[in-house]
From TrEMBL:
Species for this entry: Pedobacter metabolipauper
SUPFAM superfamilies per the UniProt record, alphabetical: GIY-YIG endonuclease (SSF82771), Ribonuclease H-like (SSF53098)
Any one GO CC term of the record: cytosol
Top-level taxonomy: Bacteria, Pseudomonadati, Bacteroidota, Sphingobacteriia, Sphingobacteriales
GO molecular function: 3'-5' exonuclease activity; DNA binding; DNA-directed DNA polymerase activity
UniProt subunit comment: DNA polymerase III contains a core (composed of alpha, epsilon and theta chains) that associates with a tau subunit. This core dimerizes to form the POLIII' complex. PolIII' associates with the gamma complex (composed of gamma, delta, delta', psi and chi chains) and with the beta chain to form the complete DNA polymerase III complex.
Name listed for the protein in its UniProt record: DNA polymerase-3 subunit epsilon
Length: 456
């Protein structure tokens, strides 16, 4: 078995927007280095000053060096039939695979990360950066932050790891079923193995324990592992993977509960890697306001972000139908409710069904009493129901409670609980903030699975 121990220097931290300035490949036969290839590469872009200060590689040094496409075939021939080895392998591999693909080569080979391997075979070190680890292991590095020096040190580290691997860890990593090398360099396999195959919410955390991403899943482990697949070489993904050091999770009874918990937790923590949630908002609402003459006026309007609606609708027709019902039952004025326009008096007044608020024949105080009764009726029309589903185990069931058209909260109750009493349910549920996004999810779910909905 041959290993290709690789190190590269680059113009920046992500493959899709940066270039390689130097590359070194040390061919290792499992005992020692048997061949090598090293070259400067013209990245065809400027090398930032801080990169030059770190590596010592300047624009002048690479000006007459070959561009990657000129040496792509040589590099591919050194790599394609060997085990690709690097310290933080996904960084080097992403750059080289990206550049090779631009030159028409598809690099497919197994990988070994000496960061991950060192954590398993040589545990207990305070740092697994190449410089500090080699210093602790008395491995010398000549030309630190140059491809040749770092690759030679990594090859010597590989020799030590191969000699110290008494439990066959390397073979396990290289097995077809192992996804070890796809994991971020700072995330242990043990963290993945403890994740359950059930619905819930997971939290990616950085080295200091700060939450950097929150996600929801039908199967937590499968969803988490999906983050580490793919070929995205952009800066955001590369930095994101590098920053993941640990994972926490919370199991939910259903995927719907995971959706709601995720939405709430993102609003609570606002992790830097979570993009804005897609929001569902009802398009129209029924609003009440007092006009300059003191009359309370009901009207349908487009959804107002910062003004609570008495009732929300997805279509203006749905809103007008409800408003006309209130007008009929409480003898409200169609003109004051914006149903009729461009008339001095509404049609109902002419027919004797309106007391004349539209032409100020009825006082505001008298008219407003009926508006208040209409609003009270509206409140009784808002639905109260529970969605009952499976729990986290066989001894419980999950419960989501909607009370008078607003999401109250969710939690877990006994299989024998009295579901028809909201007061008893509330004591077992965790309250959540209600919004149109959550209500839409719950209502849609209840419509799809009417057997789970229990009117209260």
């Amino acid at each position: 078995m041959l290993y290709a121990v690789v190190d590269i220097e680059t113009t920046g931290g992500f493959a899709s927007g940066n270039g390689i300035t130097e590359l070194s490949i040390q061919v290792h036969d499992g005992v020692s280095i048997i061949d090598s290839y090293e070259t400067l590469i013209n990245p065809q872009q400027d090398i930032p000053e801080y990169i030059e200060a770190l590596t010592g590689i300047s624009n002048a040094m690479v000006r007459n060096a070959p561009v990657f496409s000129e040496v792509a075939e040589i590099i591919y021939n050194y790599l394609h039939d060997k085990i690709f080895v690097a310290h933080n392998v996904n960084f080097d591999f992403s750059f080289i695979k990206h550049q090779l693909s631009l030159s028409g080569f598809d690099l497919q080979c197994k990988k070994i990360c000496t960061v991950r391997l060192s954590r398993k075979i040589l545990p207990g070190h305070s740092s697994y950066s190449l410089g500090k680890l080699c210093n602790a292991l008395n491995i010398g590095i000549n030309n630190r932050h140059r491809a040749g020096g770092d690759a030679e040190a990594t090859a010597e580290l590989l020799t030590l790891l191969l000699e110290s691997d008494h439990e066959g860890i390397i073979s396990q990593m290289l097995s077809r079923n192992s996804k070890e090398q796809a994991l971020p360099p700072n995330l242990s396999r043990a963290q993945i193995d403890k994740l359950p195959l059930c619905p819930g919410v997971y939290y990616f955390k950085d080295q200091k324990g700060k939450i950097i991403y929150i996600g929801k899943a039908k199967s937590i482990r499968k969803r988490v592992c999906s983050h580490f697949t793919g070929t995205n070489t952009g800066r955001q993904r590369q930095n994101f993977l590098k920053d993941i050091h640990s994972i926490d999770f919370e199991v939910c009874g259903t995927e719907l509960m995971a959706f709601i918990l995720e939405e709430s937790e993102i609003k609570k923590h606002w992790p830097e890697n979570n993009r804005a949630l897609k929001r569902f908002e009802q398009k129209y609402g029924l609003y009440v306001f007092e006009d300059q003459s003191g009359y309370f006026r009901l009207g349908i309007d487009k959804h107002r972000k910062h003004t609570p609606a008495l009732y929300s609708f997805n279509t203006i027709l749905e809103g007008h139908n409800l408003l006309k019902l209130l007008i009929k039952e409480h003898l409200l004025c169609e003109k004051l409710c914006f149903i009729q326009k461009n008339r001095q008096a509404c049609t109902a007044h002419e027919e004797g069904n309106c007391a004349g608020a539209c032409v100020h024949k009825e006082s505001a105080a008298s008219y407003n009493v009926r508006v208040k009764y209409a609003i009270k009726q509206l409140e009784t029309m808002l639905p109260t129901f529970a969605v009952i589903d499976k729990g986290r185990n066989e001894d419980e069931q999950s419960c989501l409670l909607v009370e008078q058209g607003k999401f109250y909260g969710m939690g877990y109750i006994s299989n024998y609980a009295d579901i028809h009493e909201p007061g008893q349910l509330k004591s077992a549920l965790q309250p959540f903030a209600s919004n149109d996004y959550i209500l839409h999810m719950i209502r849609t779910h209840a419509e799809q699975f009417p057997q789970k909905k229990i009117a209260i």
